Backbone:
């Protein structure tokens, strides 16, 4: 059961964005899954990852900050766990929040708050290393 918002109060919604690295990782994993379990399951998995990331538009702070990963990447990081079905593998979706950003459109105004998905990782892999975190942070800083 959810508590209704106070009159005149609208909860903040975030735009969900994906870095090039996250998109590449999703595509690579979908390709791997196609070979292992078939195209339909891979398509369901990929759509599920994007849908799960989309849920972060509402209350992305519901997941705690990750101290070690944040230190490695150099920005505050959070993690969403995605699992297509109860029996399928788990995936870790690492993301950060930007509360207000400069709009790059022609209006030159401010853009709203964003969730930025930085990295997608199979849950059975070893934890994120310092070098992987540094590489992810550098790619994010360069906008790739």
Residues:
């Amino acid at each position: 059961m959810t508590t209704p918002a106070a009159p005149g109060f609208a909860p903040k919604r975030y735009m969900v964005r994906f870095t090039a690295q996250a998109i590449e990782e999703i595509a690579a994993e979908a390709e791997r899954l196609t070979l292992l379990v078939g195209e339909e399951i891979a398509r369901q998995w990929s759509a599920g990852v994007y849908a799960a990331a989309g849920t972060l538009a509402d209350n992305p702070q519901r997941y705690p900050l990750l101290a070690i990963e944040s230190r490695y990447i150099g920005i505050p990081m959070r993690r969403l766990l995605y699992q297509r079905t109860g029996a399928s593998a788990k995936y870790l979706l690492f993301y950060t929040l930007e509360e207000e950003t400069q709009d790059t459109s022609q209006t030159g105004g401010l853009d709203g708050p964003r969730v930025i998905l930085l990295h997608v990782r199979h849950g059975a892999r070893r934890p994120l290393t310092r070098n992987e975190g540094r590489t992810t942070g550098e790619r994010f800083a360069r906008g790739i």
Summary: The CA atoms of residues 118 and 126 lie 17 Å apart. Residues 20-37 form the longest helix (18 residues). The first strand starts at residue 15 and ends at 18. The chain has a mean pLDDT of 88.
